[in-house]
Sequence to fold (280 residues):
Amino acid sequence: MQPTPNGLADATLSFIGGGNMARALIGGLRRRGVPGTSIRVGEPGDELRAALVRDFGVHATADNLEAVREAEVVVLAVKPQVMRPVLTALAPGLGEHSLLVSVAAGITTAQVRNWAGSGRRVVRVMPNTPALVGRGASGLFAGPGCTERDRARAEELLAAVGVCAWIDDEALMDAVTALSGSGPAYVFLLAEAMQAAGEAEGLPREVARLLARHTLIGAAAMLDQQDEEAAELRRRVTSPGGTTQAALEALREGGFEALLARAVHAARQRGVELAHAAEG
Ligand SMILES: NC(=O)c1ccc[n+]([C@@H]2O[C@H](COP(=O)([O-])OP(=O)(O)OC[C@H]3O[C@@H](n4cnc5c(N)ncnc54)[C@H](OP(=O)(O)O)[C@@H]3O)[C@@H](O)[C@H]2O)c1
Fold:
């Protein structure tokens, strides 16, 4: 996506927290032509600040109030557990019309507005770890009062590190967390299980590791590059009565799809519980 007029390239942009996710987003923006000079970062760690300045030419400071001064878009990229004190301290320094974009897992737009000021426009984002390598999948929710430009700017930010999907009902952000937020771990578990299965069939460990990993990477590349449903790609590699069909039947008999549905549901339930615990 190219920078749009009135988009992030024209905005003064500030990050609170300069850790992994902020670095990924800043790197993505810089690659898309957003100048480092329009980005300010508030981050307490000396080394992280120095690395951000060196790698991206941004302005980095330990003073969050300095970081947000005159910022039109403020990206909240601190850990969820410190969001409340960080926002409470930041609130008096935020510009009246600043858009807040929170990437903190599980923190609701209502919580951000409680802590930063009830009139604040907030976009809540749930990115995932592959954003760190530019292949993220993010769910976005626009809180009350957000404008089309707010949505466009938030989307431009997240599109710099992957694909975006807008969610209309904030309660569904727990489902996003359960599917794409936690999802990379399901794939890593699949990689482990496939490697172990290959070893159990007698393949040397390194051979099983290489073949399992690259089967996942290759299959993911086909999903990415071929404009076909997963079901169609699966059908094409499943000859009737063949080896793949035998494997898929064993997976189905063992309840593979139902088990995955249960796993995603359990993750969603846990997200709901954690949000309630944070309220209490
Ligand atoms: N990484 C992911 O894949 C991922 C995926 C989805 C969502 N997220 C969300 O993204 C957010 C950031 O995650 P992360 O992985 O980037 O964590 P991280 O690497 O720990 O980055 C957070 C940074 O914020 C800094 N910080 C702490 N207190 C601060 C303060 N008062 N003011 C400014 N900065 C402060 C931390 O410094 P210290 O280390 O010195 O405390 C740290 O450098 C989290 O809310 C997380 O839920 C991350």
